[in-house]
Amino acid sequence: MSDSLPASAPAIPSVPRLGPVNQRRPRRLRRIFALEDLEPAARRLLPRPIFGYVAGAAETNASLIDNRRVFDEIQFLPRMLVNVSGRSLDCEVMGQRYALPFGIAPMGVSALTGYRGDLALAASAYRAGIPMVISAASLIRLEEIARVAPNVWYQAYLSGDREETEALVGRVARAGIETFVITADSAVVPSRENNLRNGYRSPIRPDLALLWNGLTRPSWSVGTFLRTFLRHGTPHFENAGPGRGAPLLSRQAVRDFSGREFLDWDIVRLVRAQWRGRLVIKGLLHPRDVAIARELGADGVILSNHGGRQLDGALSPMRALPAAMGVAGNMAVMIDSGFRRGTDILKAVGLGARFVFIGRPFNYAAALAGEAGVDHVIDLLHAQLRADLGMLGLRRLEEMSKEVLFLENFRHVR
Ligand SMILES: Cc1cc2nc3c(=O)[nH]c(=O)nc-3n(C[C@H](O)[C@H](O)[C@H](O)COP(=O)(O)O)c2cc1C
Ligand 1: distance of its center to the CA of 390 in Å? Predict the structure, then answer.
């Protein structure tokens, strides 16, 4: 993988493909005008337990709600009468250039919500010149995803087993993947009562409840669920370790993904010693943790509260960003949780973030319309970012700074 955009990726279009409604766009996308429109559409498509699993968060949704609310505390102070023609949105992250300042966050079981979901996400991201992160809890082999999209990153849920970790790191390197992400915030299983209320169970059991849910959502049942089983057999967790993991419908899957309470910084040291590519720690909020990641030689961190899905009440990562910037040094500070608009992304970039990841909306988009859905979301964000940058009186992302932000109402870690 080179340090520039992939050769086969198209040139970054200077005018986003928006304009009048594209007649060839799948019907399910015709009324998707912004990322917020995806959730109600996905609710109509997906069986209730599966939609609830994606949309839901932990306990009272305090973090989920604050992830959105924080953006209202930051306003813009734009500059006027600046020539903003010829704007560009490309950016550099850890020595790599990307066409746009956002990527697709790792999400488990994306091939259950959308047919071959991980491949749709990765292929579309690659075409657009942005990264997609393969989840450790994904159902399609990482080697297959990396063949379709050589610029993918890999996210690990590490086991405490040294040999297994070394073998996994070797497997990811052999697949040609250059960025290894360790998720740090999921060592303990959270309380997601909403899964219980919605009837989401892992492992999924082929019982009457599943049959009923399937009957109420026939389009997903035939187009995703049955099509997957008939064409590819029972999906397995393919990327949690060095070899094939448990099947989706087994109890073993629960054991593999619950409880990694032994995880600590020693495992990061171990991976850093072996992994020669870029190393990123995801799920940090505390500035001292960001400082440790830097001391241990991480190339980047992703500030995140897991989209509000882990510790309920954990700070919105936007509130942690200013303090993290103070200790990050040369490390790339990236961020996710609650980003839905170009303005959200620009607020983070103005505070120093290099890059933003977005989760749920991409999951819904792949479920609704596969690659076309993911393309559409990228186009929407691209159009918003391009317009917003121009209205701020800026031509390049590098010009985005606190200068054009009004921060008096912004409550954050100091
Ligand atoms: C359905 C779903 C599955 C997820 N699976 C993973 C995962 O396997 N690994 C991980 O590090 N984060 C996982 N996340 C968290 C995302 O990577 C990301 O932090 C979060 O979705 C960002 O918030 P947003 O959805 O509000 O954009 C998952 C999120 C969702 C919604």
Answer: 31
